[in-house]
UniProtKB/TrEMBL annotation:
InterPro entries: Acyl_CoA_acyltransferase, GNAT_dom, NAT_camello-type. It comes from Kosakonia oryzendophytica. PANTHER family: GNAT FAMILY N-ACETYLTRANSFERASE, LD18367P. GO terms for molecular function: N-acetyltransferase activity. Pfam families: Acetyltransf_1. Residues 9-167 form the N-acetyltransferase domain. It comes from the Bacteria. Keywords: Transferase. This is Putative acetyltransferase. CDD domains: NAT_SF.
Length: 167
């Protein structure tokens, strides 16, 4: 009889020791979907290897997801740059294939939105790309609505899907 051991899942705030692991997750998932740095996707962000420091700033938060002690995903929220002060951005939501389809992204996004509300934000913005259909479906399920033009100055020029949610 083959018994599969249960998977231990933890969702927690990022620590400085997580920087390399979550950057690796983001790079792996980006490569899987062809999200290259030359097109202005997250892998081009100068802070990619220092997410703990980035999300330690006021109004920011980032969570990592562990399965059996390995970082397999993450996501966060931060004030939207060059925008009205009541708008935050859902950022850097990436999950390895083995962590998908388990409701982890939904749970993490809800935590991020709750944090944003607690920080006083009244709207949450996000950008993604059209071929990430599962992610778009999740965001629509969470109440994000498609909008025409970009908000703020994210630097992600090839993220043609822009969405906004009232908090």
């Amino acid at each position: 009889m083959n018994v599969t051991a249960p998977v231990e899942v933890k969702m927690r705030r990022i620590a400085a020791t997580d920087n390399a692991a979550i950057a690796s997750v983001i790079r792996q998932v980006s490569a899987e979907y062809g999200l290259t740095a030359d097109k202005g996707y997250t892998v081009a962000d100068p802070e990619l290897d220092e997410l703990y420091q980035l999300y330690s700033r006021p109004g920011c938060a980032y969570w990592v997801v562990e399965q059996n002690g390995d970082v397999v995903g993450g996501g966060g929220v931060a004030p939207l740059k060059c925008s009205e002060p009541d708008i935050c951005e859902l950022q850097k939501m990436y999950f390895l294939p083995r962590a998908r389809g388990q409701g982890l992204a939904k749970k993490l996004a809800q935590m991020a939105l709750d944090h944003a509300r607690a920080q006083g934000f009244t709207r949450c913005y996000l950008e993604t790309t059209a071929f990430l259909t599962d992610a778009i479906g999740l965001y629509e399920h969470l109440g994000f609505e498609h909008i025409d033009g970009p908000l703020g100055c994210t630097g992600h020029v090839d993220c043609e899907v822009r969405m906004l949610k009232a908090l």
